[in-house]
Every structure is written in structure tokens, then in C-alpha cells.
Specification:
Elements (H helix, E strand, L loop, with lengths): L7 H20 L3 H6 L1 H25 L1 H10 L1 H6 L4 H8 L8 H9 L7 H11 L2 H18 L6 E5 L5 H9 L6 E6 L2 H10 L5 E5 L2 H5 L4 E5 L9 H4 L8 H4 E5 L5 E6 L16 H12 E12 L10 H11 L8 H5 L10 E7 L13 E8 L1
Parallel strand pairs: 1-2, 1-6, 2-3, 6-7
Antiparallel strand pairs: 4-5, 7-9, 8-9
């Protein structure tokens, strides 16, 4: 390991040379050998994690903005780190945000991506980070939660993404009748889910968290004959609004209708406004709570702040932030419970768990905190 007191530029040069040499060695091997031999993966994994720990020290010395700027100007980032499809996609934000539908599928399906042995193995390293493992685990935990819902239940998912937990549940329990209302602001995501999941089980809609936050429960459902020509970014502006009733069916989310309302990847991006319950996570939680019927449940996920047993360590977090400009709002369990500040305590029971949904485990032993609210 290099001297951590070296100037940042020399450290970046060092890891550039080390990764170049490792890439050349791995790429000389036949693909079937390189991708099945654990030695190559282990070498790339260990070097990547050592590099992240050293950059952590540099952030403490000179500041994160300084380190991120110089790293992203260096060939280490451009020529080597961006060989990971995970890192590149999160950085490019083709849908406007890092954790989009495509990235969630990359994480959960764990298919290999890359044109060289090194790029495939490097991508595996980032797909195996604790934050990615937590995403896979939350999908499994939600799938199992659905199995305990009575037949005829209705479920709402806000910011559904590819709804992998819903697809997995339907594959596993094709005769268990639960209706899912899936909302996302991204039309391409809604379009994808409509094609992938049996429409007898799901109702896919365009819905915006900001509107819900302000008490507007209106949704739009593209009509099947016009699916190919729907473009919500344009259709709801200017003269095109005249065509909205033709191209979209409008719906309204009804209060106290749902047995389960959940949102797992949204609150990490929404701010808290202390002293103002009309905005941010507190306002959105209140609106989602109102959609739950008595006896139903609200589940909200948020990545957890650092704690002794949290596997998502600071170097892992900085990998996301330095390499991909992927910034989340991390919160403690108490801060997550504070989402309920605008709901009377007499109206609910509450617990905070982690991505394993295990009541016997403190939330801090996971990477994601889950607020589980039972409505009285």
C-alpha cells in the first residue's frame, strides 16, 4: 500500500498503474478461466477496497469536493473505474437519477457486463458492495411479506422502478390474488413494467411524489392504443394538453384503500424540513399513511447512517459518491421514525427494522432502515 500522506495526484497515479497492470494480467487469460478463477476477482476486489480506504483519508485531509474533482479528471477514473457498467451507469444518470430501473435490474439480476475480463470482474466487485446486497435483500423481504397478505389485498408501491419484488411474487404465487398499483414518475419505467408483469395483477400508473406530498392524488394511465406515442414530459404542457384526455385515463388514489403502501428507494433523496410539516419526508409520509386502510401497513425504506454494525461502510459510500456522483440522504433509526411527526401516535404502531425485516435484529445491523407502520 502506498504512503497515505502522498499528494493526491501521486496516489491516483499509483492506483492507475496498479489497476492497469492487474487489468493486463487478467485480460491475457482466456475468458472462461479468468471469470471462473476466484484469484482474479479477489485481486481486483482487494485493490478496489484499498483504494477506497486511501481516498477516504484524502477526503478527510482535503475535502470531498477536491478529491472528487481530481479523481474524475484522472485517467484512473476515465479509463479504469468507468469500465464497470455499474459505476458508469450511475454516473451518467440517463434517466436523471442514479438508482434507476436499469441499475436496479443490474444489481438484482447480477448479469455480467463488460467487454473484457477485467471490466466484467470489476463490475462484479461493485455489484457485491453491501449497499447492492441490501437492495437484493429488500426485494426478497418484500416478496415474502406479500405472501402473508390475505387474498384480495390491494398494494400501492410509490416509485416502483422495475417492481422486481412484485414480479418475483407473482412468479412464485401465481394463484394468490393480490392487486398491485404501481406508480412511477418515469414513463419508460411504467411502460416496461406494463410489458413485463401480467396486467391482471398490476395497474401501472404515472404518479409524482411531489404532487402526492401536496395532497394531489391524481394519476395518469396511458391508454393502450396510444402507448407508443405517449410522452408525458411533453404531453402535459402547452397545446398538447388538449390531447391528454384522449391519450391518458386519469385516476385518483383513494384514502384508506390499501392494505399495504410501500416505498423503498425514494426517501433517500427527499429532504427533511425541521419545523415545517408541509414539506419533505414528513409531508409525504402523512399522505401515504392516509392511503392505508385501518389494519393496514405502511413501509418506507431509507439507507442508514453509519453505525458500528452497518455493513455499508464509509469507503463503500464514498465509492458511490466519488466515482458516480451518487449521493443519498443517510438517516438514523430515530430520524426515520421522525417521518411520522405529522401523524398522531394514537393512530399507529411502529418499528424500525433493516432489509432483513427481522424483529430480533437491531436496525443498525443492516444497510437500509425500514419504517414499518401499522395503522390502528
Amino acid at each position: 500500500m502506498p504512503d497515505r500522506d502522498r499528494p493526491l495526484s501521486r496516489l491516483l497515479d499509483y492506483y492507475y498503474c496498479e489497476q492497469q497492470a492487474l487489468a493486463a494480467r487478467v485480460n491475457r487469460c482466456p475468458a472462461d478461466e479468468a471469470l471462473s478463477d476466484p484469484a482474479g476477482y479477489t485481486a481486483i476486489h482487494d485493490l478496489a477496497h484499498e483504494q477506497a480506504r486511501v481516498l477516504c483519508d484524502q477526503v478527510d485531509r482535503t475535502g470531498q469536493t477536491h478529491v472528487a474533482y481530481h479523481l474524475q479528471q484522472h485517467p484512473l477514473h476515465r479509463e479504469l473505474l468507468l469500465q464497470s457498467a455499474f459505476i458508469q451507469h450511475a454516473l451518467e444518470k440517463t434517466r436523471g437519477y442514479a438508482g434507476d430501473m436499469d441499475l436496479m435490474q443490474m444489481i438484482c439480476r447480477r448479469a455480467d457486463h463488460g467487454e473484457t475480463n477485467f471490466s466484467v470482474l470489476e463490475n462484479r466487485v461493485y455489484l457485491n458492495l453491501p449497499a447492492a446486497e441490501a437492495v437484493r435483500q429488500r426485494v426478497a423481504s418484500l416478496t415474502n411479506w406479500f405472501k402473508n397478505l390475505p387474498a384480495g389485498s390491494r398494494v400501492l408501491n410509490l416509485a416502483c422502478g422495475p417492481a422486481l419484488e412484485v414480479a418475483d411474487y407473482i412468479r412464485q404465487q401465481p394463484t394468490h390474488k393480490i392487486q398491485f398499483d404501481l406508480l412511477d414518475h418515469d414513463w419508460q419505467t411504467v411502460r416496461y413494467v406494463r410489458k413485463q408483469i401480467d396486467p391482471h395483477h398490476v395497474d401501472c400508473r404515472l404518479g409524482n411524489a411531489l404532487q402526492i406530498m401536496h395532497g394531489d392524488y391524481q394519476t395518469a394511465v396511458p391508454r393502450w392504443p396510444f402507448t407508443a406515442i405517449c410522452n408525458p414530459d411533453r404531453d402535459f404542457r402547452g397545446w398538447r394538453t388538449w390531447l391528454v384526455p384522449l391519450k391518458y385515463a386519469h385516476g385518483t388514489l383513494e384514502p384508506a384503500r390499501y392494505d399495504l403502501v410501500y416505498s423503498t428507494g425514494l426517501f433517500d433523496y427527499i429532504r427533511t424540513f425541521p419545523g415545517d410539516k408541509t414539506k419533505g419526508v414528513v409531508a409525504l409520509t402523512r399522505r401515504l399513511f392516509d392511503l392505508v386502510k385501518p389494519g393496514g401497513t405502511l413501509i418506507i425504506g431509507n439507507y442508514l447512517a453509519q453505525a458500528a454494525d452497518n455493513p455499508h461502510l464509509r469507503p463503500h459510500r464514498l465509492m458511490m459518491e466519488l466515482y458516480s456522483d451518487w449521493h443519498l440522504i443517510y438517516r438514523t433509526p430515530d430520524e426515520i421514525i421522525d417521518f411520522l411527526d405529522d401523524v398522531s401516535t394514537q393512530r399507529y404502531s411502529v418499528q424500525v427494522t433493516n432489509e432483513y425485516f427481522g424483529q430480533e435484529q437491531p436496525a443498525e445491523r443492516g444497510a437500509i432502515g425500514f419504517l414499518i407502520v401499522g395503522k390502528n
